[in-house]
Structure formats: structure tokens, C-alpha cells
Amino acid sequence: MFITPEVIRVSENNKGVILLLVFLTTFIIPLISILILWLTKSIKSLYMMNMEDRVFPFSIVSLFYVMATYFFHLNLSMDFMLVYTLSVITICIILLTCISFFWRISAHMTGISGFLAIITVTGIRYPMLEMLYPQLFAIMVCGGIATSRLYLNAHTPSEVLGGFMLGFSVCAFSFYYVMF
Predict the structure, then answer these.
(1) Which residues, 6+ apart, have CB-to-CB distance to 51 below 8 Å?
(2) Could you give the angle at the alpha carbon of 108 between the alpha carbons of 105 and 110, nearest 5°?
(3) For the segment 126-173, what is each residue's pLDDT rounded down to a tens digit?
């Protein structure tokens, strides 16, 4: 989002700090918590092949995302679109967690398809931006992840499609609503 100054207005001095905070609160802390769950045998495997193995870790990750979003929301100098983006991603993760109670859709596809949707809507809203190459890159990565999930027998085609539909639809509708 930082490459599109039309979308997010953050000073150059704050970009590094914001990226570090987002990385810590949405990647490092959830990763450490999942590793602790695995080391304490609270989950059987880091692969989380069973639905039962996914619900508790996904719930914890959802909680971390809610806390991170709230943390960024409290900072009044934070750009609206940054907080909005975190909010939409948090909604995707909460929905993914709820769906994981009865269906094991692909979390990988939910994430990358949400990214694709954000790039697509941004390109439609700001046609003067050169979003073609990022969009093509996101499509290729999306296809690669889908193929790898199927090749590794980690998911069925319907689980991959379900993850794609969840991430893409939530992010596309949310960003279309706020940008147009």
C-alpha cells in the first residue's frame, strides 16, 4: 500500500516503523504463539491437517490481529486506509476461523486472493497508477500457491476455491466500498 501514495499517506520517516510494527504484530507474535502451541503439544503438527488442529491456533491468530488493528486504530495519527486494510484482513481471518469449525478451506489462498483483490480494486480506482505488473505478479503467485496446495494434497480443489473466494470477495467488496 505504501507504493500508492494516492491510497495511503504516510511520511517516509514513519514507513519503516509502521512496517516493523505490522510485521511484529501480525507475523512474528502469531508465529511464536503457534510454535509454542506445537512445542507444548497443544497442536499435533504445524501442518494443521485436521480441522480440530486449526481452530485453536486460528483463534489465537485472530485475537492477535484484532489487538493489532485496535492498537493501530488508537493511534490517531495513523492513516485511515492502513487501519482499514488491517481491519479487512482481520475480518478475513475471523471468518476463516469461523469456517474452520466445519470446513478446512485454504488460509494461504484466503491471504493471497485478498492481496490480489486489493491490488485489483486499487488499479480500477486509480487507473493512472501502474498496477498491471503488481496485479500480474499477484495472479501468478496466487496460481502458484493454489497449484502447490493441490500438488501437496494439503487441500482439495473446493477448499482452495473456498479460500480464494473468501479472501477475494471480502477484500474486493470492502475496498470497492471505501474507494468508490
Answers:
(1) 100, 101, 102, 103, 104
(2) 65
(3) 887 788 888 999 999 999 999 999 999 999 999 999 999 999 999 999
